[in-house]
Amino acid sequence: MSETNPAATAPMAADAAPHRYTAAMAAEIEARWQDFWDAEGTYDAPNPKGDLAGDPELAARPKKFIMDMFPYPSGAGLHVGHPLGYIATDVFARFQRMTGHNVLHTLGFDAFGLPAEQYAVQTGTHPRVSTEANMKNMQGQLRRLGLGHDKRRSFATIDPEYYKWTQWIFLQIFNSWYDDEAKKARPIADLVAQFESGERAVPGGRAWGELTEGERADVLGEYRLAYASDAPVNWCPGLGTVLANEEVTADGRSERGNFPVFKSKLRQWNMRITAYADRLLEDLDQLDWPEAIKLQQRNWIGRSEGARVDFPIDGEHVTVFTTRPDTLFGATYMVLAPEHPLVEKFTPAAWPEGTHDAWTGGHATPTEAVAAYRAQAASKSDVERQAEAKDKTGVFIGAYATNPVNGERVPVFIADYVLMGYGTGAIMAVPAHDTRDFEFARAFELPIRCVVEPTDGRGTDTSTWDEAFASYDAKIVNSSGADVSLDGLPVVEAKARITEWLERTGSGRGTVNFRLRDWLFSRQRYWGEPFPIVYDEDGIAHALPESMLPLELPEVEDYSPRTFDPDDADTRPETPLSRNEDWVNVTLDLGDGPKKYRRETNTMPNWAGSCWYELRYLDPHNSEQLVDPEIEQYWMGPREGQPHGGVDLYVGGAEHAVLHLLYARFWSKVLFDLGHVSSAEPFHKLFNQGMIQAYVYRDARGIAVPAAEVEERDGAYYYQGEKVSRLLGKMGKSLKNAVTPDEICAEYGADTLRLYEMAMGPLDVSRPWDTRAVVGQFRLLQRLWRNIVDEATGDVTVVDAEPDEGTLRALHKAVDGMRQDLEAMRFNTAIAKVTELNNHLTKVGGPVPRTVAERLVLMVAPLAPHVAEELWRKLGHTDSVVHQDFPVADPAYVVDETVTCVVQIKGKVKARLEVAPSISEEDLEKTALADEKVVAALGGAGIRKVIVRAPKLVNIVPA
Question: All domains of the chain, ordered by start, with CATH?
Fold first, then answer.
């Protein structure tokens, strides 16, 4: 909705106030000071190996490493919602500089990813060309906001000198394994040495020296932290690529493009993040993160204790994981995930005699039934398969397993409510005590045996039950066998006894399970980091040596992976890189003479570059090391209150609660284990900013219309004469409600935009954008300017006189409150205190004392740095305001001189007294009883009781 520029309608004519603070003046001031900051390197963070070593005073300062989450350089540029976090970290960083800290604050770009690739496919423009143009545009927008970034440290993930080290880290992970005994990653060479010496037995029982090179590679692949495997993946034919679970929507479609996603088996790279599940959980306790984010990570990791139980089938066995081994006697059937690798092996050619008709799905053979059901399950997402639907589906595979605790034969089914991604992909079904199992058993007419005594009075006859009974606070029943009995035991004791029995008899073992799955790390795309991996003629993977890094992306004619019919689940990927045969097929000398190799033609996911970028900010031009150890130790090393080290403040959206943050934590721990960094965690303090929302206007068809062209009439909204609906939502180009920071800067100036975004409300909550309200902060800056500068002459009007006591109290209370607010990132209340002080000076009138004016400018400096620099210079200073000391309050003026004491008689207020805050209860009582209004109100009546709450209340109870 269009607005009028308040600066153009000022009450004082422009020729009468040539030095008034206007949008034009703001633009000139801001551009000039931005040039000054760049030229002077005002925001350059000191280097521990240079600046600090030569300046003991500088080295003695505490440090603050402040970061924003990586922006992606969108072609649409920024709208006013994007800079909210950037302005907040800038204000905080400026305050930290003014309170004596060495501050590192910079910003780069997370520039690989699908949007640029899709644009390249549509237009033929190389992704680098469009991405660099987008970055240049965003850099201009961000510069205009006056952000105090150390620009020497900026970079983009697409820079070869950056992704050289992304590839290097991948190789560190590839050449590592997780030692469960040491509980840390170790070089793969250590594992090989153990196999060679016999210290560790080779799986399969053969000697290491007897294995072929291919067999050794297969063994090591079972240990490596980065490994390739044939595994179920989310295959999206419409995009021509596989997707991580997190990139698939709840209805089983791709997050980008909304194409169907199918389960398929492909050979892909994975990261063994599951090896770190326990440490990722435990170390959350030491991080200063919002509890909601910690809870999401805990739930995603999903730790659960229980037991693995082996159910024999045809001379072999299927292992299940259960958190309730105490209910083993109640297991009356088994269910495997449709994708379970043993399904085909255990599926016979014909139905066993006496197979229940309801179990076959109407198919003539088990093979047909299994094939049909697998196809049906592949069309559903994991979320759909886990939905608590009443209609349970499945099919008998024609095989029976043996319950190890009682020897009973139990039928084996496949059903889509069991996933390969959790536990072992197989469950023992205890229908009496699990809702899904109960519904499945009723649907397929399977036995339901009660083994946990109900506490709700329903009894143990399950034929009368309408639902399962689940409880951890009950006794076990119907659970006795030849050599173990659980009857009468509470759940916890029963779990311990049956687990001991399983281990003693070799039927299972106690274990811990996690919901977390290994991280799928391959993408069939062009615009990503190439893998530094080549394959020899036998298909064995070899790591490129560091001297061959970076392995740069080659040119290709077609940037898109081959896409297919979105509904054709039987297709397979064809990557853009695979079409450049000259790049793919190479002759290399990897230490044993020139040989022919084939390069990996997948690329890394867009998450890769953001897993370690905090380290590159520390030492961005180091071509010899990932990061200099001394520099990393200074900025990110462990210290008091931060036992795992990390960035001091990391600000970004809560939408990255799991993916980016979990992946970055994993990479940090591997690098820490291998001795490359001193910080085991990347981000010590996390702050999630809210979202700036905007009204979305839609016509009768539900199509968004341009918000700027909507008119409000009598409480309704109209676009081109037609009534439209209004709803508060996201801001964005597609919703036609985006307001760019360029527009606001042109109309009011960047300092006004900064103040408005910080004043809208608490930083961690969402808030609606209202262009009409921006003028309030513009007027604050105009009043600030007017209190120091004569608008007619441009002369400074401050005087070298002592402020009156009221002004001193207003000043020091504002300073004290602002210090607390800025430290706690309560920027909206900090601005309120500046406004109150500024209004006080306006109300008092007359020239402002210099000491007050200078402190006021320093208080404004973190929030509105351009106008602060200008006023600081006008006040006669030649140095920048950026590194000045923030004012300190005098405690004598912070405490109120008097407080108001309310005097009540029979609960009604009869007098108000101005008393000293430190007045004693005895003196306060005497003062209250002597007050004329109190004496008159009592009218000579006696006093039964006086209740005193110094210094604010006296309550008198007459006789």
Answer: 1-40+739-892 (1.10.730.10), 168-280+519-599 (no CATH), 303-514 (3.90.740.10), 896-958 (3.10.20.590)
At 9, is the secondary structure helix, strand, or coil? helix
Q: Please, are residues 756 and 773 in contact by the beta-carbon 8 Å criterion?
A: yes
* pLDDT score of 553 more than 90: yes
Q: Two tokens at 640? A: 């008091």
**pLDDT 10s digits, 430-456:** 999 999 999 999 999 999 999 999 999
| 133 sits in which H/E element | helix 127-144
Q: Which two tokens stand for residue 331?
A: 């297991």
Mean predicted confidence (pLDDT) in 63-85: 93
What is the number of helices (H) and of strands (E) in the chain?
Answer: 29, 31
pLDDT band, residue 559 (cuts 50/70/90):
confident
Return the H-helix or E-strand segment holding 901: strand 899-905
- 3-state DSSP call for residue 728? strand
- State both tokens at 857: 């400018």
Taking the CA atoms of 428, 432, 437 and 440 in sequence, report the sign of the dihedral they define.
positive
And the tokens for 750? 């960047």
pLDDT at 561: 80
- Token pair 């990897």 is found at 590
pLDDT tens, position by position, 228-258: 998 778 899 998 888 877 788 877 889 888 9
Q: How many residues does the chain have?
A: 959
Q: Which residues contact 932 (CB under 8 A, 6 or more apart)?
A: none
Helices (H), 551-628: 581-584, 613-618
Q: List the beta bridge partners of residue 232.
A: 265
| Element of type H or E holding 345 | helix 343-346
Which residue's structure tokens are 């070593």? 53
Question: Which pair of structure tokens corresponds to residue 947?
Answer: 């209740």
Question: How far is it, in rounded angstroms, from Cα 420 to Cα 422?
Answer: 6
- Quick one: tokens of 739? 């307001």
Q: What is the bridge-based pairing of β-strands 908-915 and 711-713?
A: unpaired
771 CB contacts (<8 Å, ≥6 apart)? Answer: 1, 3, 739, 744
Residue 672: count of CB within 10 angstroms of its CB? 19
Query: At a CB cut-off of 8 Å and minimum separation 6, what does 244 contact?
Result: 234, 519, 520, 605, 659
Complete DSSP assignment for 635-677 = HHS-BTTBTT--BSEEEE-GGGTTHHHHHHHHHHHHHHHTTS-
Q: Cα torsion at 800, 806, 807, 812 (round to 10°)?
A: 120
- Reply yes or no on whether the pLDDT at 320 is more than 60: yes
Q: What is the DSSP letter of 433?
A: G
Beta-carbon contacts of residue 210 (< 8 Å; ≥ 6 apart): none
Residue at 677: amino acid letter: V
420 pLDDT band, cuts 50/70/90, is confident
Report pLDDT digits (tens) over 379-398: 776 667 766 555 789 999 99
Residue 197: exposure state from Cβ atoms within 10 A (0-12, 13-18, ≥19): exposed
Q: Whose CA is closest to 429, among 392, 390, 398?
A: 392
Q: How far apart are CA 632 and CA 645, in angstroms?
A: 10
Q: Parallel, antiparallel, or unpaired for β 541-543 and 333-336?
A: unpaired
pLDDT at 392 (0 to 100)? 85
Cα separation of 418 and 441, whole Å?
14
Instruction: Tell me if residue 209 falls in helix, strand or coil.
Output: helix
The residue whose two tokens read 């008899």 is 505
Pair 120, 130: CB distance under 8 Å:
yes
CA-to-CA distance for 416 and 362, rounded, in angstroms?
18
Q: Which residue has the tokens 């609906």?
A: 725
**Do residues 215 and 222 make contact, with C-beta atoms less than 8 angstroms apart?**
no
Residue 252: which H helix or E strand, with range?
none
